[in-house]
Design goal:
Radius of gyration: 29 Å
Distance between the termini: 59 Å
Strand order of the largest sheet: 12-14-13-16-17-15
Low-confidence stretches: none
Number of strands: 25
Number of helices: 39
Largest sheet: 6 strands, antiparallel
Strand content: 5-15%
Shape: globular
Mean pLDDT: 94
């Protein structure tokens, strides 16, 4: 064991705990039992079998209120692996559940036996017919697919609120729809073809002209069974009419029986049945969508009403006017949304009875937009709107930023409301539809029913389609609370079916939640047909038992998860998974959601239990060490949960007092440390990479991998010993070269000025000269200490840099321009909690400007572009995302290059200062997709604006990245 390896015990929860009834039992502490583990390892290979207790707990939770611990998790890479898993399950009498993003809300992505992760190796999109169609793999998120399609002026029909995280496989398997899809733009209507693997292992490509012939040869009984069911349904006129009527409104409860009416052959029937089958009929390995036009002329309004029923009553008018979306939000939803960044703070003061409609019109051109706006104005003139708080305008707007804010608030419904629920309570998300003409009555009845059962639920939904969602919070550890929920569900389901003839699941699919109520909605005849369909396709019941079909009337009460309190920063988490696609480590170790899930399981356990010990042993590396600390999870989380900050605090807790003292000493002596580091980098050029890799490798083994960086060949040479000469007299700004740019030089082979020289030169050309203080050496943005959780050192340097900056800028009279985005973020925001009260006052007087903003807003208007490079690819850093200056990166790059590309898979590189040198596997995993996209073609320039991120991308791509300001200097050089 390395000399300074931290003890896992340090992170053992210290609070007194009552063991939870749903805790993982001690017998599961050793993970996957034999022979299951050994047999699957022999079948698939060790890298594709996740078996530790930490692995199993990570996959036990999703966005639903349920929690089931699998026996094993497997990670297949291709269809051959899928077929092998299904064959094994058949032979051994085991059960299989597929899981992609884990954003499903009804437990359909959870299994108790073999859980198959179909996200990690299943992403990709191929654009067909100039965007008219797209071939998409099931692990691709909706947002990622639409980013590619947008270049062609197209988009997918389904648009669920979880598009940032949910994947195509889950969208199709649930027939998820969203804000605008309704019954005409959902997967059932827009999927052109599917490729899927049946429970038997047979692969079907519905686009293959010979598909029916091949299927008849491989699965004759299946084909006969499907055609027999089709004939039986078509012979029953009353049943046929009922099926057609059920799909006139949104409905994802049960199987798509209309597939038997719409398809004439077994393959066509299967193509329809697979949509909305929730993984119970097979694995969807590829989807070809018919895409839709991306109408870019958008007009939207957020209109406020005195009550939910008043808002609901206005919905038909907007439908008639041609609105593509009419979204309803009640007072609880609106008030909870204040936790979402950008939402007006005065929404917290909205009366409880208030409701709002988010109405949107989209047109392909200006005349179409104007016509829609006239129709919308006519509707608004006839409404009795209210202005309960000052921020309310009740006006239509074309401003993209305002519209984006409206949608951000609406899409945060589940997470924002869930995040504001009482601590320790479980969140249930219900989803139903009624004929749109009955929406107002349904709202009134729902509110009355909630009050009868003691719930004060939040309500929102796709009002244009009669589709409402509401959230209930209760304590799953209290039998009385579970009984109250059960009684409500009984009454709610009867109300929806018997009074409104509605759908018990409009778009979230049956899952475990509504399975016991399937027959209530569909009746015995149709329900039995669904059971028989399952028997025909999956006669051995291998796939997802108890999902969709379950004869247990209390199945929806089984497996409800408790939510024990954890660290305050993470406690609001509802485990939605929105954070996962942005997390640099999610393909390597754990995601932010999983870090919180693991922590909650520790809190469920009695102190010192074998399960808790096993989780702690893995948590140090899997959660704490391999967190990049970039906090992009905070940006993706609708309620701003910063799991990165929690991991930094855990790092702090693991430090010994001696380590904290050394870190503080390093901060106090940073001038000498900085000089030594630069000399070491300069000496490294003469020593050679191989020797340095060997020496640092041995040191890492002896001391601790998380303390000693590994030398990487991509580390550049030393920066020039002296910074450019500048004058304070006449300076427009103070220029602060970050310590990384004072230590490290440009990329290997770079000819031309250094970054500090470039910034000074290009600022002077624009008539806005900058001044570099002579005493910048020994100062730092403090991120070095902040990212590692060294609080004492952070305090030292945070206060030093603010005091120095205040003096340099003459008390804030000049802006402070910083040439590394992470350092800008550090000085502008991250140092604040560590400042003394006096220095917080000084900090408030500072104007900290990122060099990208300085270049785009201040320099470019005054510069003449004399030459451009042909093409440039950009790497927007996570710090730029936090600062909101990605557009400035693009603006400067577009001034310097004829073609500018931001990769669709661009994300945090996870180099994170020196984290990529401490755990190079983290950067390799985080950058894999972006690097593949970058290397799919040649570019003339590879640009960013943060030296350590540029090094990380150099390593990932084999290309030489440099600052866009260096490129700007070249483009304007006389």
């Amino acid at each position: 064991m390395p000399l300074l390896e931290p003890k896992p015990e340090v992170l053992r929860p210290g609070a007194a705990r009552t063991p939870s009834p749903d805790r993982v039992p001690d017998v599961r502490a050793t993970g996957t039992p034999e022979p299951l583990r050994g047999e699957l390892t022999a079948l698939l290979g060790p890298k594709k079998v996740l078996w530790t207790v930490s692995d199993l707990v990570k996959y036990a939770s999703d966005a639903s209120p349920y929690r089931f611990v699998p026996q094993v998790v497997v990670v297949p890479e291709d269809i051959d692996d899928i077929s092998a898993i299904l064959s094994y399950a058949h032979g051994k009498g085991r059960e299989v559940v597929f899981r992609a993003a884990g954003t499903s809300l009804n437990g359909q992505a959870q299994g108790e036996d073999i859980l198959v992760d179909v996200r990690h190796h299943w992403a990709g999109i191929e654009v067909l017919d100039d965007g008219a169609r797209a071939r998409i793999r099931p692990g691709t998120t909706v947002m990622r697919a639409n980013a590619t399609l947008a270049r062609y002026g197209r988009l997918l029909g389904p648009d669920p609120a979880s598009a940032i995280a949910c994947t195509i496989g889950g969208v199709v398997a649930n027939n998820a729809s969203g804000m605008t899809a309704g019954t005409t733009r959902n997967s059932y209507r827009t999927v052109a073809s599917l490729t899927f693997v049946l429970p038997s292992g047979t692969v079907v490509d519905t686009a293959d002209p010979a598909a029916d012939e091949l299927l008849a040869h491989a699965e004759p009984q299946l084909c006969e069974g499907l055609l027999a069911l089709k004939a039986e349904i078509e012979a029953d006129a009353e049943l046929t009419a009922r099926i057609r009527a059920k799909y006139e409104i949104k409905n994802t409860n049960g199987y798509r029986l209309d597939a038997f009416l719409d398809g004439s052959t077994p393959v066509q029937i299967l193509r329809g049945l697979m949509v909305g089958s929730e993984g119970t009929f097979g694995f969807i390995s590829e989807v070809v969508f018919d895409t839709l036009p991306l109408d870019r002329k958008v007009s939207s309004a957020l209109l406020f009403f005195p009550s939910l029923t008043a808002a609901a009553a206005a919905v038909p008018r907007f439908n008639e006017a041609g609105a593509i979306a009419v979204e309803l939000m009640d007072g609880n939803t609106l008030r909870a949304s204040v936790s979402v960044q950008g939402v007006p703070a005065d929404w917290a003061e909205l009366p409880k009875e208030t409701a709002a409609l988010l109405v949107e019109f989209r047109a392909p051109d200006e005349p179409g937009q104007e016509a829609y706006e006239r129709a919308a104005a006519a509707v608004v003139d006839g409404l009795d709107l209210v202005v309960p708080v000052a921020s309310v305008t009740n006006e239509f707007t074309r401003e993209a930023k305002v519209i984006s804010g409206y949608w951000k608030a609406r899409k945060a419904f589940v997470t924002a409301v869930g995040g504001s629920r009482p601590s320790g309570t479980t969140l249930i998300t219900e989803d139903f539809a009624v004929p749109p003409s009955l929406l107002a009555d349904a709202c009134e009845a729902l509110l009355r029913l909630q009050a009868e059962h003691g719930f004060d639920a939040a309500v929102a939904g796709h009002a244009a389609h009669g589709n409402l969602h509401f959230l209930l919070a209760f304590d799953a550890a209290k039998p009385s609370d579970v009984d109250r929920y059960a009684a409500f569900m009984d009454d709610f389901c009867r109300l929806t079916v018997e009074r409104f003839d509605g759908s018990l699941k409009a778009e979230h699919a049956t899952g475990r939640n509504i399975a016991p109520f399937l027959e209530l909605e569909w009746g015995p005849k149709a329900t039995e047909l669904m059971w028989r369909t399952k028997q025909v396709i999956d006669p051995d019941g291998v796939l997802a038992p108890r999902i969709v079909l379950d004869r247990d009337p209390k199945a929806h009460l089984r497996g409800l998860k408790t939510i024990p309190e954890v660290e305050l920063i993470a406690d609001p988490c509802i485990e939605c998974g929105f954070c996962e696609p942005t997390c640099p480590s999610h393909d390597l170790t754990t995601s932010p959601r999983q870090r919180i899930v693991l922590r909650r399981e520790m809190m469920r356990q009695p102190g010192g239990s074998p399960v808790e010990t096993g989780l702690l042993d893995a948590y140090g590396y899997e959660a704490v060490d391999t967190c990049a600390g970039d906090s992009t999870c905070k940006l993706a989380c609708p309620v701003g949960i910063d799991t990165g900050a929690m991991m930094k605090d855990f790092r702090h807790q693991r430090h010994s007092p001696r380590e904290e003292r050394i870190a503080a000493l390093t901060a106090r002596s940073f001038k000498a440390v900085e000089a030594s580091a630069r000399l070491a980098v300069a000496a490294a050029d003469r020593i050679g990479d191989r020797l340095l890799e060997t020496v640092t490798g041995l040191a890492r083994k002896a001391v601790r991998p998380d303390l000693v960086p590994e030398w990487l060949p991509e580390i550049p040479g030393a920066a020039p010993r002296k910074l450019p000469r500048t004058s304070r007299v006449g300076a427009s700004a103070v220029y602060y070269p970050a310590c990384v740019n004072r230590i490290f030089g440009g990329p290997e082979g770079h000819r031309g000025p250094s970054l500090p020289q470039a910034v000074v030169a290009v600022s002077a050309r624009a008539g806005k000269p900058v001044w570099i203080p002579e005493d910048v050496a020994g100062t730092c943005c403090s991120t070095i200490w902040h990212s590692k959780g060294y609080d004492e050192g952070n305090v030292v340097m945070a206060n030093r840099i603010v005091e120095a900056a205040w003096g340099w800028t003459a008390g804030g009279k000049l802006p402070l321009v910083v040439d590394a985005s992470s350092c800008t973020l550090g000085i502008a925001h991250e140092v604040v909690p560590y400042l003394t009260e006096d220095n917080r006052e000084l900090h408030r007087e500072l104007t900290v400007v990122d060099s990208l903003v300085w270049a785009a807003d201040e320099l470019l208007p005054e510069l003449t572009i004399l030459r451009k490079t042909g093409s440039a690819v950009l790497h927007p850093t996570c710090s730029m995302q936090h600062l909101g200056d990605v557009e400035q990166l693009r603006t400067v790059a577009e001034a310097c290059a004829e073609e500018v590309v931001v990769p669709d898979d661009a994300g945090c590189c996870a180099f994170a200062g020196d984290r990529g040198m401490l755990h190079k596997e983290l950067t390799a995993s985080a950058t894999a997709k972006e690097a593949a996209e970058v290397n799919s073609r040649e570019y003339d320039a590879y640009l960013s604006a943060n030296r350590m991120c540029e090094i990380g991308m150099d390593r990932a791509t084999g290309r030489a990245y440099h600052s866009v300001l260096m490129e700007l200097e070249r483009a304007t050089r006389p």
